[in-house]
Amino acid sequence: MKTRLNLERIKKFVDEDNFVISKHARVRMFQRNISTEDIKGGILNGEIIEEYGDDEPCPSALMLGGLENIPYHVVVAECEDHVRIVTVYKPEGDKWIRYRMRRR
């Protein structure tokens, strides 16, 4: 059974600095010049555009957020007592419609 993610709970965890950034996400942040503050702002001002409720060990979601008109996609996992940042990237416009829907 797929789990629905709770956007407000995700934002609360992030606002309270109750999140961890995966090693993979840290590498991507460095490669793409994306800061922790960019990620926090993107999540706090963002929206869920895809849900992966069957992901293990925690259900996850793709979020669209952005700062200073730069869109970011952040994959977050909503765990029992924290949020895990799985990866982050700047979406390519030719692969997304308004950065919200995948082009077919």
Keyphrases for this structure?
single chain; 104 residues; alpha+beta; YaeB-like fold; five-stranded mixed β-sheet; 7 strands; globular
Describe this structure in words.
- By secondary structure, the protein is of the alpha+beta class.
- The chain has one domain (7-102): YaeB-like fold (2-Layer Sandwich), CATH 3.30.2310.
- It is built from 3 helices and 7 strands.
- It has a 5-stranded mixed beta sheet with strand order 1-5-4-3-2. Strands 6-7 form a two-stranded antiparallel sheet.
- It is globular.
- The relative contact order is 0.22.
Q: What's the architecture, going by CATH?
A: 2-Layer Sandwich
Shape: globular
Mean pLDDT metric: 91
- The value of Rg in angstroms is 13 Å
The overall number of domains is 1
The biggest beta sheet, please? 5 strands, mixed
Structural class by secondary-structure content: alpha+beta
Q: pLDDT under 50 segments (min length 5)? A: none
Number of helices: 3
Strand order of the largest sheet: 1-5-4-3-2
Distance between the termini: 27 Å
Tell me the fraction of residues in β-strands, as a range: 35-45%
Count of DSSP E strands?
7
- Give helix and strand order, one letter per element, not per position: HEHHEEEEEE
- Per CATH, what is the topology? YaeB-like fold
